[in-house]
Amino acid sequence: MVIKKQSKKPNTKTNEGSELLNAIKNYPIKVKILNRQRLALWVSIFSVIIALGSFIVVIYKEFLQTYDIAANYSQIIMAKLPEGNRQKIIKDHFVNILLFGDDSEKQNARNNIRLEDLKQFPDFFKAIERKDKDRLNEIFENMKVQNYKLPDEIIKKYIGSQAFSPTFCIPLVISNKGSKFAHISLIYLISRDAKNTKKRWLFKCMTEMNTESIVHRENTTDASRISDIFPGTSVGPKERLNIYPYFFPIWEYENQSIATNSMVPGEYFIHLEGLGPDGEPVFITKTEKLVIKEESLVKMFKGTDMAQYIEHDSFMKEFIK
């Protein structure tokens, strides 16, 4: 008798249970993998955002953020003639008197020359006899004329010469409304003849004037009038500063003449320009009118400072109504 083995039927319930169990066991792993991928994605997104923000900040600071400079002044001070220029004019007049003056004028001129100086130049009188103006000019370069006052009519003859050029002090208020530091390396004063604007004069701020010498204008020496050289200045964001630039004439640049004669009585248009380290303008002031009178130039020669105050026409006209 043959006994047939019965084939075992697969237990479908057991297999389904095993697959379900395996799926349950693997599910947390898939979730962890999925979470890590999402986290890496968000980290990448945040990194891009931070990098983009940093880039925007750099672009703003370097290219968009800037200063906003305004420079204003309410008066123009025409300073007394520097003593060196004054002596140059007096000495030139002395030489002309010693060569071409009458006897009384020559004697008056000699009385204002110190004997100690004459002893240093034994050829002084021979130069007068030879009418050697060049030698007399050389001698007077090393001499100082004491207590000699030129008559007004003689002073007026030298108006327009380079030695008679005015110098200016303009108290300046500089404010920075921007959000970046501004550095001002140079300040120039530009003057134009009101009747012929092609005629120009250039003045450069080389020093700053001592404020006490502006208030107490009499009996001050050239050295005491200068507080310091002008190295430039910086204005921080939302800051303001006061400076007292002292302007001297510039006659030529790289062997090219800017002006040959100094400013004479008349009307002029002036403005200031401040330049940065790169030579580009940091500020340009409003153009103002300056009136120079002959009597003012004579007083300037004699040692007097004069101030011209800026009047706002619109305000004054409205006030007078």
Lay out the secondary structure.
Layout: H1 12-64, E1 69-72, E2 75-79, H2 83-100, H3 103-111, H4 115-120, H5 124-129, H6 133-141, H7 152-157, E3 167-169, E4 172-176, E5 182-184, E6 186-193, E7 200-209, H8 211-215, H9 222-225, E8 226-229, E9 233-235, E10 240-243, E11 245-250, E12 252-253, E13 256-257, E14 266-275, E15 281-284, E16 288-292, H10 294-302, E17 306-309, H11 313-320
Antiparallel strand pairs: 1-4, 2-3, 2-17, 3-11, 4-10, 5-9, 6-7, 6-14, 7-8, 7-11, 12-13, 14-15, 14-16
Helix pairs in contact: 2-3, 2-6
Q: Any key phrases for this structure?
A:
ten-stranded antiparallel β-sheet; three-stranded antiparallel β-sheet; Immunoglobulin-like; 321 residues; alpha+beta; 11 helices; disordered N terminus; 2 domains
Report on the architecture of this protein.
With 321 residues, the protein is α+β, with helices and mostly antiparallel strands. It folds into two domains: 68-82 and 165-320, Immunoglobulin-like, CATH 2.60.40.10; 85-157, no CATH class. It has helices at residues 12-64, 83-100, 103-111, 115-120, 124-129, 133-141, 152-157, 211-215, 222-225, 294-302, 313-320, and strands spanning 69-72, 75-79, 167-169, 172-176, 182-184, 186-193, 200-209, 226-229, 233-235, 240-243, 245-250, 252-253, 256-257, 266-275, 281-284, 288-292, 306-309. Strands 2, 3, 6, 7, 8, 11, 14, 15, 16 and 17 form a ten-stranded antiparallel β-sheet that branches. Strands 1-4-10 form a three-stranded antiparallel β-sheet, with no helix packed on it. α2 (83-100) packs antiparallel against α3 (103-111) and α2 packs antiparallel against α6 (133-141).
